[in-house]
Each structure stands twice: as C-alpha cells, then as structure tokens.
Amino acid sequence: MASWFPIPKNSPFSLANIPFGIISSQSASRVPAIAIGDHALNLSLFASSGGFSQLSAIQKHLNVFNEPTLNAFAALGRPVHRQVREYLQNVFRVETQYPQVLKDNAELQKSALVPLSQVTNHLPMQIGDYTDFYAGLNHAYNVGVLFRGPDNALQPNYKHLPWLTMVVLPLWFPLELICTVPTRLDIELELACFISKPNDLGKPVSVEEAEDHIFGLVLMNDWSARDIQAWEYVPLGPFNAKNFGTSITPWVVMLDALEPFRTQGLEPENRESLLPYLREKRAENVYDIPLEVEITNKGGQPSIISNTSSRNLLYSFPQMVAHHTITGCNLRTGDLLGSGTISGKEPHTQGSLLEQTNGKKPLKLADGTERMFLEDGDTVVLRGMAGTEGNFVGFGDCVGTILPALSL
After folding, report:
1. pTM for the whole structure
2. 122 carries an active-site annotation
C-alpha cells in the first residue's frame, strides 16, 4: 500500500494501520490524531480545514475531533470508524482520489502533520471500568504450578469460560514512570480492547455481535507485585498486587487493521466444553502478532527477554465481551478489557519475569547484570508488530521506567 507521504519501511504506523490517539503539541491542546509513519495527523485541524469534506458519513459528527478523548468518536460505531479509516488511507495513497484534500495542500500538510518527536501522547480514552481477564493459558498454567503445584495448576472450569484476575472500578493509572514499594515487581505482557458501543443494562451481547462493540486494541503492561500477590490471592485473587499501576500504548489499532493477521488461538481440550454462549462460528478468532519484551538498566544496553505471539490466548476478545455481559452487565464506551498475560511454552516466550525465573533462577541481561524481578532504574518496553516491510501494523512502544519508592 504505497503512500505519497514518506513513511519509513519499518514503521509500525504504515498506511495499512492508521491507529487513533490523543496528542498535544506547541500549537494544539489535546486533540484526536492518527499516527502515520513518523508523524501524527491532527484530526481537529484536518477537519476544520475541510479535510473530511469528501466523506459524508462524518459530516454531522465533526465535533468529535475537537474532544480531548476518543470516546465520542468511538461511540459512533464500527461502520463509521471503518469509513473514516478507509477515507484517510485514500487521502494518503499515491493514487488518491482526493489530492486537493492534503497531497496538493502544502499549507495544511505543514500545519496538521506534526513529527511524533514534537507531540505528547495522552491517554486515548476516558476509561470507566477496567476488567483484566486471564485468557493466556500457558501463563495461567505456569503461575498455577508455582503457586499450587502441577496437579492443581488450573481450576476445573478454566477451559469452560474466561476467568478474571480482577475487576477494578474506576481506579486506573496510565503511567510512563512508576514508583515501587514491592520488592518483587514484575510485568505482564497483555493486549487490551476498548469498548466503543455500549449495551443496555440487562441485555447480553452475543459472541457473534461482540466485535461491533470493540473500538480497537492496545498493548498493555499490568505491573504486578508478586510478593503482595502471593499473600493476598487466597481466596479471591490479587487486588492491591495489581491495581497500583497499568500502562498502555497511546495508539488504538482498529480491528480492521488487524484482520489480515487472524489465526486460530489455543483450543480447549474439547471445544464442546465451552458454554454455548462462548462458541464462535469462526475458528480464526485471535491474532498472530509477534510480541516482545525489552529491559534496559539505567545506563545499560537493551536486552530482549521475551519473544512470543498474541495467538497464545485461549479466549478471544469477542468471547470476553460475551462473557462480561451474559448476566446483563452493561459495558460503556471507554471500558477496557485486558487479555491476561500472554506466554508461549518455550523458554523466553513467557510474558512475565515470574515465569522465566520461577523466582529462583535470575535472568542475565546484556550488560552482565542479573534480574529475578525489576529493579530501580529499569526501563521496560513492550512491542507488538505484524506484517511485512512497508505494510507493518503495530502499536508503538509501551514504556515504563521504575523510580525509587517515595518516602511516606
């Protein structure tokens, strides 16, 4: 998919992607934008300058591009999201149907296309409720073995329905820098989906209709205090061990951009063991997105400690939405559903330090230092990107740096 606008071949924000986010810059307060290569297109300025004049579907809703979050745009629904994304792809194509909109409009290019190095990213949605699922089968088994032994690693109903690790409402901390109190601080490599279309209270969302309620996906790091978790998880599971900090990528990737990477996820031993409301007609219900975790000590060199794939999920996001609403629970625009930690079976494919070290055998980083868990000064980066050169679809970096604990 060729563009007249210069896009680095290895950029996660190719023309095949078009993710949405919220930015600010010297000339703009918080406004919606898309990422395109090494730049962001300010959609507020683009819209006010007639950029959407050729797209009738959005004409009555141009005010959504003046909002400080994406909630209003997300609430318009997937058909509108699809038309806006496809229109913007057309605007940037070499053979665009609308050259007058941006390609031949040097003044608008100069004002609305801002280098990513000159923008500040912000939380893309106003988040209401946050639910963290436990759909990573390999992670659930690995941690279950550590806490309960191999015979009781998974509970009997784990392969019948999506488990939850916690529901936190409305507490949420989007962080680039976090302060630590626990002595065994860990990461959790996850995907998460934002809800766009709410359901009415009392009305479940079917698994076949669930994608129409999803705005898009982000990468997520659900920081975990393993020392606190081991103490408090019986009998109800972790709470304070996880609710002190969560980081996400600032760009929301649309489901349509991820469509080419559909694949079959992990299967329960017996597909018929799934409760009927969770049975999907389509076998390719998850995405095969290469994921990696990088740790860099302060002043050290980066170490890739994990390479895995998002296909290592037992349950899909539509199944999570269906399960969340089966009792009539109402979701709202901006709610966030986490997948749970994504891990493979092979060494260095696990999405947490706990799994890789077993709390006993430390990892050796590229600078020669060792890690059982994270330490002050460590920077963690999660990445996810699929596709081919020039047509990559990625989330950008999910970054967090550990600062010394505050004195209380």
Report:
1. 0.93
2. no
